[in-house]
């Protein structure tokens, strides 16, 4: 594995990233900043974060292949690689049928997109795939640097490591809610998870992990929320995130759920201390 991502990274959607948060995450010791929320194919936000920092990797999680064509994304990749060599990782994903009118033949569409990136000179080690099921996990290992699973558990990480084999980059995302008020943290968890429970790609994967229809109903059961969003004392949250590493992850993508009154930079610094960064 040649990706220098560090052991932990910070994920935020496009609306959640600020230069202040990016600098705080880098200074706290995180190795990668992950841009979520289907960023535009021009990759301007990734470029802004790269310019605001000195050494961290910046990755997309993920560029939706239905949103921007491969030629546009490849040109953006090469622009960032020229300006910030070795500091950008193109994370790609197929999106969701509920959100994409053109959604069809998802596996073949992803293969075709990778073929176009090959033709445009985007190297295999410069990209990674959002992957949950065995088939796309194997594709990630064969056609990219590795896999960036989203909305998963350490049990899924262990399964993904088996599918990928040794030496292939594996970076699962996990949500945390560090607001000191347990009710606020729980509401953040339920609101966030509830959105994803309307997307069949995620619910199908959660069922393979043993969650039932009852767990997936009404915004998610307490059991589901506890497994998908780590809450509580910092030391407890840090210990649970480390379970992904024990299960075979190379890098853990930490996704702080932030309410309007939460101090994102302070939270990532405090968690970094608990993680020993």
TrEMBL record:
- Keyword Lipid metabolism assigned to the entry: answer is no
> What InterPro entries has UniProt attached to this entry?
F420-G6PD/mer, Lucif-like_OxRdatse_MSMEG_4141, Luciferase-like_dom, Luciferase-like_sf
Which intervals hold domain Luciferase-like? 18-115
Name the keywords, alphabetized.
Oxidoreductase
Is Oxidoreductase one of the keywords? Answer: yes
User: Could you give a GO molecular-function term held by this entry?
Assistant: oxidoreductase activity, acting on paired donors, with incorporation or reduction of molecular oxygen
Q: Name one Pfam family in it.
A: Bac_luciferase
Signal sequence segment: none
Q: Which NCBIfam families does UniProt cross-reference here?
A: F420_MSMEG_4141 (TIGR03620)
Q: What is the protein's given name?
A: Probable F420-dependent oxidoreductase, MSMEG_4141 family
Q: Which organism is it from?
A: Auraticoccus monumenti
